[in-house]
Design brief:
There is one protein chain. Helix 1 runs antiparallel to helix 3 and helix 4 crosses helix 5. A hairpin with a 3-residue loop joins strand 2 and strand 3. This protein is 52% helix and 19% strand. It has 184 residues and is of the alpha+beta class. The radius of gyration is 19 Å and the shape is globular. It has a 4-stranded antiparallel sheet with strand order 2-3-1-4.
Length: 184
């Protein structure tokens, strides 16, 4: 049984270099597609007044695949070109399961694997994120999708809820509650 791994890469790009950055990242993603164990890639773009924050989520079949692509010389060259635009190496967070929802701070400065909050705190955080959103979505969507078959209604709610949880709800909640989450 495989354990898929997600790499979240965050870059900050000046507005004047947006087109060049996006072209290079598209080329990089084409190289990823040729790698063994590559599953998918998605990009989230957040526009700010002076720069654009890009978070690229690449999904890999397992830990080995998530590391193996770094040895590809074409990918290394493309990353160097991207770093010339961004002014340095990107922030990279590796996670599997719901670990992507949490800021990985502890240990990162010392070069150690980043720490995650205890499992019970992650469960509490998930309930805090899921329950209110589920209730809100049920109430807001009932007039719109209420006449559809129940299985289709549930599917629509799950897609919308999953999207909102992945970005922005759980990252926001994890930052908001980080002192509690990481407290020993």
């Amino acid at each position: 049984m495989s354990n898929p791994v997600v790499l979240a890469v965050t870059d900050y790009v000046p507005l004047s270099k947006q087109d060049r950055y996006e072209a290079l990242v598209d080329e990089l993603h084409q190289f990823f597609e040729a790698e063994d164990g590559f599953l998918s890639v998605d990009t989230v773009r957040y526009n700010r007044p002076h720069q654009i924050e890009y978070t690229v989520l690449s999904r890999w079949a397992d830990e080995k695949a998530a590391q193996q692509w770094r040895k590809n010389k074409l990918i290394q060259k493309k990353l160097s070109q991207i770093e010339a635009i961004t002014g340095g190496a990107a922030d990279i967070v590796e996670a599997s399961g719901i670990g992507l929802w949490f800021d990985h701070i502890e240990g990162a400065e010392a070069g150690l694997p980043p720490g995650l909050p205890p499992i019970w705190k992650r469960i509490v955080l998930s309930v805090i994120g899921v329950y209110p959103m589920l209730i809100l979505l049920l109430e807001l969507t009932a007039p719109i999708i209420g006449s559809l078959p129940q299985l289709l209604q549930v599917f629509i709610i799950v897609v919308v809820l999953s999207t909102l949880l992945t970005w922005p709800i759980m990252p926001w909640l994890s930052r908001l509650l980080q002192p509690w989450l990481m407290a020993k």
